[in-house]
Amino acid sequence: MSTFTVLETLEAYLDSIALARSANTARTYGNAVQAFTLSLAENGIDPETALANQASDKWLAAFIGNLKGFSPASERLYLTAVIGWYEYLAAERLADINLPRLRLLIKRRARRPGLRLPQFPRQQIERVLGFAEGLAQAPAQDERERLRALRDRAFLLALADTGLRVHEACNLRRGDLDMTEGRAILVGKGDRQAVVRFSRRSLKALHDYLSARSSLDGSSGRPLTALPLFARHDLGAGKKTLPMTTTTGRAIVHERVRQALGDAATQAITPHTFRHYFVTTVLRASGGNLKLAQELARHRNIAVTQRYAHLSDDELDRGYYEIFDT
After folding, report:
1. How confident is the model at residue 188 (pLDDT cuts 50, 70, 90)?
2. Distance between CA 182 and CA 201 in Å, rounded?
3. In this structure, which topology does domain 6-109 adopt according to CATH?
């Protein structure tokens, strides 16, 4: 076994993290290692003189006890960093480490981060969708502005009524969508192929948009099926039918939310907020059918869907007063 000290191996471990991970991650791991060395010192172990080959699960157990003043999420993050050091020792053959035992120790003693329920302003989203519907009749200075209005209307309604993630919507091609069946085939999260269903109102909005775009698409020289479902309509695109980026998709949500609700609302409503709206709408309308919501939202784990199966404060208030004040 090596005669490297604990401190020397911790520094070498952090150097390897700095090379492979982001600066933010390296900084966080550095904070975790600093907390770990303080824990060692408090338990009579000097990192500058103690040998790394003496690394023990007792050191980790003591560290877990010293992390109780941190939030559960921070505790988990710091433990991930420190268990990485133990893995580093094992991989470099600097110490004989029983990694399964260490992971079991963390599983038994570490706290789990509290569950955060998805929160979103439902009524505000519905106001944004109402505003989006009105974009079809909005006055436009030129054809480019008219196409943007129709595109943004279709884009927002699609996000709300399909559960599409913003990058999925931006990556769709016209050939992916069967307007007759109201379905699109896409490659979603984890490179899994999935079917996404479109509502009547989102299909109508898409039909209006694509009809207005017909001359632009027809002059592209490419098969219609290969063209993006949602295209750019800015000066840079000119007369070409170019796909939107995720940045453009986010900008659409930001700008239309600002127009509908004001600047303050742009902090609360993001593209993913519309996905929250979709899942919760399915649950409310189906009487809490988790399996249906899971399949439509394409959640691999139903535990993710269960996070949405909660009542809003308004619904809880109404239920309470119906019981006790009638």
Report:
1. low
2. 11
3. DNA polymerase; domain 1 (1.10.150)
